[in-house]
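Sample pair:
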Amino acid sequence: MKTSVDLAQLVEVMGDAVIVADRAGKITLWNAAATRIFGFSEAEALGQSLTLITPERLQHRHNVGFDKSMETGTTRYGSALLKVPANHKDGRTISIAFTVAMLFDDAQQVTGVAAVIRDETERFLDERQLKQRLAALEPK
């Protein structure tokens, strides 16, 4: 039995951020979880560049990779879980983990990318603290 799903509702109620950007890197979809994670409202994010949440030191690398993906229609990350720092509206750096997927039209031309993103800041800080404690216990 096939179940009908309201995709707009699904995206909106997800606990993870769902962000879609067009070929130019402009944000076209920003769900409620994206607002919770990054602090920017949907109105503030829509139409903005993905660099809104990309730390300045990583923007060049992001832009080069994004442009190459738009050109080739592929991403070198496939379904790999990426872990990177990101910007929060209040100026904090947060740690995120995400997957990215290429989007295509009916003619198989690239239309943009979609990302599903989780805030991993707390887990990242816990891991770093644990590593520091382990390092302190190792004989010198």
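The radius of gyration is 17 Å.
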